[in-house]
Amino acid sequence: MTDTNTQIKETVTDNEVVLFMKGTKSMPQCGFSSRVAGVLNFMGVEFADVNVLADEALRQGIKDYSDWPTVPQLYVKGEFVGGCDIVTEMTLSGELDALFAKEGITFNKEAAEKIREANA
Amino acid sequence: MTVQDEIYQKLSSAFSPESLNVVDESEDHRGHAGYQEGGQSHFRVAIVVPEFAEMSRIARHRAVHVAIGPEIIGRIHALTLDINS
């Protein structure tokens, strides 16, 4: 395993919810990263944000790690969940709530309902 | 051939989609990160493939990524996928 791979593995193991993104959760630098960080923030989910733009090895490394060609990438309990499209679909279908509930991740159900109402 | 046509061709030959729509949305992203003069940077694909019915979301997306190919994916900035079975 490369150092980058080890680093990613540790990050997704040490943190229950991790978002690899362009920019940070307080200052996203891409609309797709911004959308996923926004959903998590709105749902009150505590998550670690990793800015891939700050590290060229990581920017490529995260794509190799998950065999997924795009950023953002969301991980819950070490498992890759998906990128912006999948997280959006799962938010609207309620699957994301179900995943958080199953994994014991604290989130605000009412906020999730509000997102669904606003997008109904 | 435009990138839009290339993506359309790759997907229609890899699967037999019931419906397929590829939109170049680059102009909507003018001024944003990844925009390049002349467009061809941001794409939205809507595809319906009956064979995807039994596949997970991640597996469907992976299949579409593979069909489009790393060369095109490496060239463009953003790809929004709306995949149904």
Tell me the structural class of chain A.
alpha+beta
At CATH level 3, the topology of chain A is Glutaredoxin
Total number of helices of chain A: 6
Low-confidence stretches of chain A: none
Oligomer: heterodimer
Rounded to an integer, what's the Rg of chain A over CA atoms?
Answer: 14 Å
Task: Calculate the mean pLDDT score of chain B and round it.
Answer: 92
Give the tally of β-strands of chain A. Answer: 4
Number of β-strand runs of chain B: 3
Main pleated-sheet profile of chain A = 4 strands, mixed
Helix share bin of chain B: 25-40%
CATH fold-type name of chain B: GMP Synthetase, Chain A, domain 3
Low-confidence stretches of chain B: none
Name the CATH class of chain B.
Alpha Beta
Walkthrough of the structure:
The complex is a heterodimer of chains A (120) and B (85). The mean pLDDT of chain A is 96. In chain A, 39% of the residues are buried. Chain A has a single domain, classed as Glutaredoxin (3-Layer(aba) Sandwich), CATH 3.40.30.10. Chain A has helices at 3-14, 31-42, 56-66, 84-93, 95-103, 109-118; strands spanning 17-21, 48-51, 73-76, 79-82. Chain A has a four-stranded mixed β-sheet, with helices on both faces. By secondary structure, chain A is an alpha+beta fold. Chain A is built from six helices and four strands, in the order αβαβαββααα. Chain B is an alpha+beta fold and 85 residues long. Chain B has a single domain, classed as BolA-like (GMP Synthetase, Chain A, domain 3, 2-Layer Sandwich). Chain B has helices at 3-14, 57-68, 70-75, and strands at 19-24, 42-48, 78-84. The radius of gyration of chain B is 13 Å and the shape is elongated. The termini of chain B are far apart. The model of chain B has no long low-confidence stretch (mean pLDDT 92). The interface between A and B is medium-sized, with 17 and 17 residues.
Overview in brief:
Chain B: Belongs to the BolA/IbaG family. The complex is a heterodimer of chains A (120) and B (85). Helices cover 53% and strands 14% of the residues of chain A.
